[in-house]
Each structure stands twice: as structure tokens, then as C-alpha cells.
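HOLO CASE FILE
Compound: 6-O-phosphono-beta-D-fructofuranose
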Amino acid sequence: MTCSQTTLGPGLRRGNGALWSMTLTHHTLPLVERPAWRALHAHLPQAQRLHLRQLFADDPRRGERLALEACGIYFDYSKNRIAPGTLELLLQLAHESALRERIEAMFRGDKINATENRAVLHVALRAPRSARIEVDGADVVPEVHAVLDRMADFAERVRSGAWRGHTGRPIRTVVNIGIGGSDLGPVMAYEALRHYSARNLDFRFVSNIDGTDFAEAVHGLDPAETLFIVASKTFTTLETMTNAASARAWLLAGLGGDAAAVAKHFVAVSTAAAEVARFGIDTAHMFGFWDWVGGRYSMDSAIGLSTMIAIGPAQFRALLDGFHVVDEHFRHAPFERNLPVLHGLLSIWNNNFLGAHSAAVLPYEQYLKRFPAYLQQLTMESNGKRVTLAGHPVACDTGPIFWGEPGTNGQHSFYQLIHLGTRLVPCDFIAFAQPLNPLGNHHDLLLANVFAQGEALAFGKTPEQLRAEGCPEPLVPHRTFEGNRPSNTLLLRELTPYALGTLVALYEHSVFVQGAIWDINPFDQWGVELGKALAQRIVPELVGPEVELHHDGSTNALIRRYQQMKGGGPR
Ligand code: F6P
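Model generated. C-alpha cells follow.
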């Protein structure tokens, strides 16, 4: 969708029951009417005429000038296609979008998740004990720390072997069962922080309802030494509940059927105590969190229990401290020196003005191999919205498609398209100066590659350079890199729990910034509901051909074909 200049309707609807009880006290013009938005459109042709080669030649200090160091992150954004004046207009847009007021509303505990009438307070999960953050007049920080303390006690008992299974043996494997935010955060953090993890424990993750996921996760495990963490905010999610039931059956089959074993091998992480009890897990073994924590913002709540068992409570605290330092920075730093604000505004520029439809995140750090998958939920479930907070159609594209793979592997697969394809793919390169596993000159080679990619994308290679090198004329068009392709580079000292916390918080708040500009609600996820409901309707229809089907012709035919195939019918 290109950005139209049509005028949107009135601001937030009022007086429509609880749903809209949260109406922002700050008023903004519809996006396309904001002066900065219009000015950015007017500025665009001028910015598009300039090549990064020219911009760097004109300003020898650009590389340092358009870089920011904060919270342990060196953020180089100089290789974005921003001309003189672009950033100023983007910052003006942030102000006209009431970004400062919206940030305050979140930190204050206002119910900014209007469609679910909830506060959005993942920042409270990492607040220090001394902080005070209220929801409906009650300070939530003591509860947060009470849960963290219980988690720490439990984690230590598992790590030390003091927690015994039903037969008296210590735990050797922790299996986290969850999906979406109840899986992606734990698995990403475990992989990212594996270097710091207790190596005498094994960690596995089950999310998919595909039985293969469960079967492979428990393959070779001894039930007597296995602990399941059932992680689900709602404790009703089909995938998680199905896997948890299979886990219980697997455990009991392996331990002689004694139901008392469940208490020693299952703990729950949830906001729904009644559902946990219904499943059969003692709520004394439940670690709670709150409805003001969105699933994709929950990795530092009790959902992080597997992370805490893996790395220990002290390192988990360091992770939270990393989040917190970025929270404070986001809240207080001036926008022109504010990491998430600049990151989010540059994304708006690339997406809404330069026409990029996707964004690649490319960590040059093997331990971050699940980071792109984690960011997919964070960014796309948050900002994949087509209406504004007031329910009007948005006037421009919203959340870009996020994707990525760790470098250097990606270089040998999809980088061809990023360098020479017809689409613009802004890239975030993430790298660490110090390797966790020093090995010969591997790390210098890794870092040489990440720096080279940003350079190649920005500056490319001209036909003249190719000819001077003796490139045969017919190959010149094929080997010309036009360059002018935007990237950010995020350089950190070392991948520690603290550093991981800073990175995740940076992206969380960047998502917030973009949602604020678009005036959408990044904190609901109605888009997942329809498919869930239709699947529930189809489940009983799969039993056999006797069931009458009332779907469309394609869905009916697929169901019939499945019934035949699974029954060993005609091939
Ligand atoms: O279906 C989407 C979703 O609701 C995510 O937002 C969430 O992270 C995931 O499902 C898991 O939900 P739960 O933690 O309630 O099982």
C-alpha cells in the first residue's frame, strides 16, 4: 500500500463502554495530516536523488556523526538513506505523534492496550525492587519481585539437584512446553545464553502441535529425571494443552502410572490459576504473571523460568538489568539520542517512504540463531495491524515483514537478493567485539564479513570500477552493485545476559515507536483468532466421510481427501 493523502476520520471514539475507556489524553492529527508527515513526503524526492556514496563524500564525518552509543550498544545508522533534514523531520513526526506522552502513558500503567482494556507493563518486570509502578492504584513491583524470588529458589533447587523427581533422582532435563511468546522467548534466550548455562542440565522446547515436536523432544529422556514446565499465559492454548497432556501420559507411562509423580515433574507458568489446577498441577508449583504482560513481551516474567534454571538467578537478574537500562534510556533520553526512537523512526522511513516491505535482522553471532524468529513474533504480531486505535483503516503500510538468519550463513543463500535483487531490504547487522568461543582467527573473519556486507550494500560497485578491473563487457550489468541499500549496524562488546536484555528491549521499544506513529495498538493479536476458531470447528469433521461439510469447495475437498488418505484410501 502506498501512503495516500486521504484524511482520516475523527480521533478516538469515546463513550463506547469499557473497550474505549482508555482514550488517549493526547490528541494527534491523523497521520497523513501531520505537518511532518507531509513535509517528509515533500522531502522524499530530494532524499531519493542522493546516493549513499555522495552522502558520505559530502560529509566525511557522517560515519561517526550518525552513530550513537548508549546502554552498551554502538548503533551506526549512517548507512541509511537519510539526507540532510530527514532525521529532523522524522523527529518532528515523533513529537507530532505524541510519542513522549504515549511513552509516559505506558510507563504510568495506563490501559494503552485499548482493545483488551489492559495496561502494558513489561517494563515493570525488570524494574528494581525500589521502583513503584501502579496498575489500578496498586503497586505491582512487590508482586513481580515475589515471583522472581520464588523462581530463584526453585531454579537453585533444580540446578543443585535438591529438587528430586518422583523416584528420588535429580532432574537432568528441563522441557519447556509453550508456544508463541511462551516458547520463542525461552528458546531464543536459552540458545543465546547457552554459554552461561548449567551444562549438567539439558533443555528442550516443545511448541508445535505436530506430534513430531514432542516425540523428538523427549526422545532418549528418562522420565524420572525430566521436569516439564508448562508455560501458557492463558493455560487454554490448544497446542500447549495438547502437548502437556501427552507429556503427562508419557511421564506416567514411564513411572508406573502413579499420578503423584505429576507434582514432582510438572510446574506451571501462567496467569490462570484455576486452569492450572484443572490440569492437575498443584498451584503451589505455579509461577504467576499478570494480564498486563503480553505474551511476546513475557520472556522476563515467569515465562523465563527455563532461562533462569539454565543460567541461574544472578545471570537472570543481569538480563533484567539490561532490559531496565534500555527502559530508562527510552523513557528519558532526548529523542535525537534515543536508540529505540531512532531505530523505530528509521524503520518508518524505510517502510513508509522508501517502500521497503521487509526488514532483515542478521546477527553475526551463532548463539543468536533464534533471534530473528523471536523478533518475528515481537514485531509482526505487534504491528501487523490494519486499523488505527480508533478503528479506522490505516493510511499507509504498517509492520514490515521481519526475517533473518545468522551471518555468515545467510551470505551464501539470500544475500544475492539483498545486494542485487529488485527489492529494498533494510538490514540490521548485529555483532559482538569479543567472541565467547575464541578460536584461531574465526572472530576477525566473522567481523570482517559483517563490516563488508554493510559497506557493499551502501557503496556497491560501479560499472567503471568493474571495467577498470578488466571485467568483460557482457558481464558488467550482471556484476554491477548499485549500492545505496540501507543498513544499521549494532555493535556490542560481548554477548552477555545483560547485553541480550538491552537488545531485546531496544526492539520492543522500537516496535512501540512505530506503533505510536501509525496510531495502532501493538498489544493485541486478534489476527490469530479466526484460524484458531475454524480449526476447532474442523477437528470433529475429520473423523470420516459420514460428517456433512459446509465449508467452501476447496476446504471441503481438502478435508475429504485427507480422510481418504489417512484411512489408506485410493492413492
Ligand atoms: O495465538 C497467539 C498467542 O496468543 C500469542 O500471543 C501468545 O504468545 C501465544 O498465543 C501463546 O499463548 P499462551 O501463553 O496463552 O499459551
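CASE NOTES: The chain has 23 helices and 13 strands. Residues 179-182, 232-234, 237, 240, 295-296, 381, 525, 528 surround 6-O-phosphono-beta-D-fructofuranose (CB under 6 Å).
CLOSED: yes
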